[in-house]
Structure formats: C-alpha cells, structure tokens
Write a structure and sequence with these properties.
GO terms for molecular function: metallopeptidase activity. The chain is about 25% helix and about 15% strand. The protein is of the alpha/beta class. The longest helix has 15 residues. The N terminus is likely disordered.
C-alpha cells in the first residue's frame, strides 16, 4: 500500500510503483503459476477482477493484496450487494463480531522493523476508541499472525503484503509481509512498514479498497472495477460519495507514511464503535 512510486494494487505512475502491497519493479521477474479457467470463473462470480490473479500456497491473490482461499471462492454471499457511488468507504458483508473485543496480534519470524511497524499500526487503531482493539503478544495463540514470505517481482510488481477478509465473525488470521530485498530494502522504514500493516489489518476486519469501483483513481492507468460480489462492497454511511484522496484503504498510495484520514475514522467508528 504505497507509491514510491507505489500502490496498494496496480499502478501506472512511474517506472517504480507499489500496491497496497505492491511495488513496480521489472527486474528479475518471477513467472506466476497459471490459474485455471474454472478458478477465474469462480473469482469473477464472486465479484472480483480476474486481472493479474496469482496462485499462492494459501489460495489466490486478487487485487494485488487480497487473499481468497478455495473455501471462500465456494461460499455463497449471505448479504445483499449494496452500491451507491463510485468512490467511498466500503466494507465486506462479513465483519468481526462479539464486541467489545481485543484482537491478539503476533509477529512471527520477522525483524525489528516489522515488529515496530506492527506496534505502530496497532497504536493507530487503538487511539480511535473503537470496540475492537489490538494487542501484540509474543506467546500464546494469536487472532492475527504477521509472518514473512520471500517473493521477487512478478508481472512488473512486487507484493509488499497481503491479507484476507473476516469469516465467522473472526478477523482473517494471517498477514503476510514480503522479506525480499526488492520490497522494503535492507533497512525498512518503520512508518512505511507500519502503514502497509495498518492497511492489511483493515482487510482483516472487513475493509475493502476505498476506490474499488475505479482503481485508476489512485493507481493511474485505465479504469478497473475490482468487483463487488461474494464478500460484498457495502458503502458506509457518512463517508464521501466523491473521491477521497488520502484514505488508508486506497488501492494505491505513495509508498511512505499513510494513516487514517477523517473519513476513514468515520467509517471505522460507524462499524466498530
């Protein structure tokens, strides 16, 4: 979720961009595994873009930083799809329930910058006074585990991090952060790493990209609608119906320090206060 040219999803700005989880870098490209026509049809039926879908060990990466498991692709939506405008705050049908609730977060096998980045993201959420709060633990069972993976550039981008959506009233259980040198460099910036983790936590608790209806708003290039099917794209009352340039859930951002803007806070408080 940046732009360091950077983006949270796909970009077309300069020769080096990032997505909420990705950064454009065409050196040493990895060829992605092919995705079957059947799976692409499931992804489309669930309302997601089938552009640049990548197979991973855990499922399929869509929109550059959202993980869909095979089980989720087979789920049927239980809530109606609601849509009002093309750019505003959106959530999925599924949210975290049983509030108030403390979500335990563990950083597993990652360096100091990722630990400090997790603490930064957690502190930002906890300052909002929501009924969902976060606590980093070092032992015991976590609700969300932040762990590493190492993957070089693919398709002109490098994934910075990824996560999925809530299920059964619980947050998505895993955030993956890229340890490849092409992602954050040899000396990762804590605020940059923390901003990506903050974005991925947003997915874990049910937030979609703010500009899901037109990713070109933050990513440049041609208009791309990410879709609104199986997990839903439900607009949140009180958030803008026009472009919102600094949201922490924009598909593409600037690769640096990005936290909640005023409308992000409205959205989170509507859902979790």
């Amino acid at each position: 979720m940046n732009k360091q040219t950077l983006s949270v999803c796909g970009c077309l700005l300069a020769a080096f961009m990032i997505t909420s989880c990705q950064k454009n870098d065409k050196q040493q490209e990895n060829k992605p595994d092919p995705v079957s026509a059947e799976v692409l049809a499931q992804i489309k039926a669930n309302g997601f873009s089938t552009d640049n879908v990548r197979k991973t060990d855990d499922g399929y990466l869509v929109e550059n930083d959202i993980l869909l498991t095979a089980a989720q692709l087979n789920e049927k939506p239980t809530s109606p799809v609601l849509r009002i405008a093309e750019v505003e705050q959106y959530r999925t049908n599924n949210l975290v329930s049983a509030l108030p609730r403390v979500i335990k977060v563990k950083v597993s096998g990652l360096g100091a910058a990722f630990v400090a980045g997790a603490d930064t993201a957690i502190a930002r959420y906890n300052r909002l006074g929501l009924r969902i709060t976060f606590s980093r633990i070092t032992s015991g069972t976590a609700n969300i585990t932040i762990q590493g993976f190492n993957e070089g550039p693919s398709g002109g981008y490098i994934t910075l991090g990824s996560a999925g959506f809530p299920s059964g009233g619980n947050p998505f259980t895993t955030i993956k952060m890229n340890t490849n040198a092409a992602a954050y460099g040899s000396n990762p910036n804590v605020l940059y790493v923390g901003s990506v983790i903050q974005h991925e936590i947003g997915h874990c608790i049910g937030m979609r990209h703010t500009d899901y209806m037109n990713r070109a708003y933050s990513c440049g290039g041609s208009a791309v609608n990410e879709g609104d099917g199986g997990v839903g794209a439900v607009p949140i009352p009180g958030t803008p119906t026009q472009a919102d340039p600094n949201s922490w859930m924009l598909a593409c951002s600037n690769g640096g320090n990005r936290t909640f803007n005023a409308n992000d806070i409205i959205a989170l408080k509507y859902l979790y206060q």
